[in-house]
Amino acid sequence: MTSGPGPETPDSLIAAASENLPTPQLQFGRLTFNVESPLPTDSPFSADTALHRLPGAIVFIGTGFPANDRMPDAATASSPDDVVFAVVLKGRARASQHGREEIIEQDHAVLMTTRDAGWHTSSCETQHLIVQIDRAALSIKVPNLGAWLMRPVLLEAQTLRLLMAHCQEAIDLDGSAPTHLQHHVVADLCSLIALLTIGCENRSETSPPSSTRMLRLQAIKAAIEAGLGNHDLSAETLAAAQKISPDYVRKLFREHGLSLSEYLLERRLALAHALLLDPLRADERIGKIADEAGFNDLSYFNRTFRRRYATSPSDLRRSAT
């Protein structure tokens, strides 16, 4: 198992090897993921998994679970109030919590909680995608969140691919990535899960679901956030990465009242603003910060920055000291 760098969190006990527990498990608070039968003693279990911790989220993709010791009840009782969005990518699983037991078929997902005892059982060949995220943050986007717990949701192929791509980006995110970028990735994951959870009721058989367009837009925005310093960022490069047309990229932004170029400028200015206020970068040249935010013309940067924030970059920096 590989785990991305990040601070250890008390809400989960992940992949600690144990010779005393024959059944591989993954523990999220009081919620246990495991395989449905003990492993043969002459067949060592090998889990193919990847995990990454971000501020306010944990992302796991893999087949099977490494063996680990169960978390003591005293520790799980004080775990954060999070939700777990568990997707079966291959195979099937059974889940039980809140007095309900459900079969989770392939390409389906279920929302579960970390503070309530429960289990999610599958075979060692079942492939999972699991995201643990703050319940309060998701509740803002999903009204009456409790009503969606333990309700299997079918994920359409397009939306599932987008979620997979976004989770893989989260796993690949370097531990030295700026905090604001990590928080942005977590916010986008939260939005994706919300859309996947409640979007199923509004889907039409005759037209692409609006949730698919929203998921696509979220994925494009995540790519923009990760590549703001790239001077060549454009509708063409974004479209190539998403395997769609540049015109469709532009259309997605226009549908939300902002052109792609306006959105790019806003995000680059916001990044430059944050960097200028960073005390650890107080001695860096403003031109270097502008370049890191994706501006290759310093006079254009100064002009647009003043128009957006009603102050110059140098004045902003002085006001912060």
User: Which homologous superfamily in CATH is the superfamily?
Assistant: Jelly Rolls
Strand order of the largest sheet: 1-5-6-12-7-10-13
* SS elements, strand count: 13
CATH architecture: Sandwich
Structural class: alpha+beta
Radius of gyration: 22 Å
Taken from the alpha-carbon principal axes, the silhouette is elongated
Task: Give an overview in words.
The chain has 321 residues and is an alpha+beta fold. The protein has one domain (2-226): Jelly Rolls (Sandwich), CATH 2.60.120.10. The protein has helices at 73-77, 135-141, 157-172, 179-198, 210-226, 235-242, 246-254, 260-276, 286-292, 298-309, 313-320, and strands at residues 2-3, 12-13, 25-28, 31-35, 48-54, 57-63, 82-90, 93-97, 100-104, 108-113, 118-122, 127-134, 153-154. Helix 3 packs antiparallel against helix 4 and helix 6 packs across helix 7 (246-254). Mean pLDDT is 78; it is low at 1-22, 38-46, 67-77 and 201-209.
